[in-house]
Fold:
Amino acid sequence: YPILTEKPGIVIAAGKVPYLVDPFVFKQLTALGYWNEQPLLNDLNSHKIEYVITQYSLPQTKVRRYSDAVQGAILANYHVVMDSSNDTYPFLVYKANEK
Structure:
């Protein structure tokens, strides 16, 4: 499965395929009407994306890299399995919940 990530280096180094490598850009494209985020929401809600890697804990209120809908889908369908937010290279790994 692809991995939704803000940290593509981690995903590529692990030999995995990133789903999106800059969610912020896609959030802006959605707001402008140039990209439909519904397929992403469908993939998150159906657990097609097994892991999500973020730089900051969700929900993000100050650093808005994901739309409210995407954050809601992640929070409803995923749980944190790794948190390195106190390290020099902070990130969190969310894994899809069991169906």
Q: What stands out?
A: The chain has a mean pLDDT of 89. The helical segments are 8-13, 23-31, 38-45, 68-77.
